[in-house]
Amino acid sequence: MDSGHTPSEVQPFSAVLRIPFRVESAAIGGIFVGMEERKKLDFAVFLVHALAEAWKVLPREAYRTLDDCGALDGYVWPCYDVLHTMGRQALVDDLTDYARGKGFAV
After folding, report:
1. Are 57 and 92 contained in the same domain?
2. Would you write out the chain's pLDDT as a tens digit for each of its 106 residues?
3. Is the domain of 50 the same as that of 72?
4. Quick check: 17 and 72 in contact, CB under 8 A?
5. SS3 per-residue string spanning the chain
6. Do 21 and 45 share a domain, yes or no?
């Protein structure tokens, strides 16, 4: 699918979720992402939906909480190598504790 944009004009997924790096290797809907970046994006989507279900909120509210409490930049991205090996419930518990530790009522 040709979006009419060159790679230099296209904003990567990493800019939306602030994933810390970008490698151009594949195009998804006209947006260029690398395999590692795609794995991190998939992981972030998984986390947001798992937390939304556990917290009984909409995914956008779960994302906002993660972003506002600094979990993405301060914990999820730096610890991705370990976190992505954990099970769903362990991740939910861990990130719930993280958000509560930052003063968020979840």
Report:
1. yes
2. 444 444 444 444 445 555 554 444 444 555 556 777 888 888 989 999 999 999 999 999 999 999 999 998 899 999 999 999 999 999 999 999 999 999 999 8
3. yes
4. yes
5. CCCCCCHHHCCCHHHHHCCCCCCCCEEECCEEECHHHHHHHHHHHHHHHHHHHHHCCCHHHHHHHHHHCCHHHHHHCCCHHHHCCCCHHHHHHHHHHHHHHCCCCC
6. no
The Cα 105–Cα 10 span in angstroms is: 37
41, 13 in Cβ contact below 8 A?
Answer: yes
Does 11 reside within a domain? Answer: yes
